[in-house]
Amino acid sequence: MWFTVEDGLTYLVGTQCTACRTVCFPPKTGFCPNPRCDGEQLNETRLSRSGRVWSYTNSCYPPPEPFEAAEPYVPITIAAVELDREKIVVLGRVKDLTVADLSVGMELELTSEDGVWLWTR
């Protein structure tokens, strides 16, 4: 699972190398992804709940197979958000905002609904 909800708050779940502290999202197993590290232990960790918009766009067409889009397809807004603490960029859907509402540097936070995590204001 890539996220968890605890006490009504949504958290992304990543992994962190015990040797060099490199953070990964989505979570992974095996070797550290940092090419300068030979660490082999990645521990699950909760990531920042907020960050700043790095980039954004909309998806006006349904994604290709094997994804099954709802009929009729409703366009979605997507944002790449740099997490406050980890400084990694995470791509995700945006709730209740369009591209006209977003700007680079805007702060967003995590929420979830219907089993999906989302960025929101």
UniProtKB/TrEMBL annotation:
InterPro entries the UniProt entry points to: ChsH2_C, ChsH2_Znr, NA-bd_OB-fold, Thioester_dehydratase-like
Domain ChsH2 rubredoxin-like zinc ribbon: 11-42
UniProt cross-references to Pfam families, sorted A to Z: OB_ChsH2_C, zf-ChsH2
Domain ChsH2 C-terminal OB-fold, chain residue ranges per copy: 45-111
Name of this chain's protein: Benzoylsuccinyl-CoA thiolase
Source organism of the structure: Nonomuraea soli
Origin organism lineage: Bacteria, Bacillati, Actinomycetota, Actinomycetes, Streptosporangiales
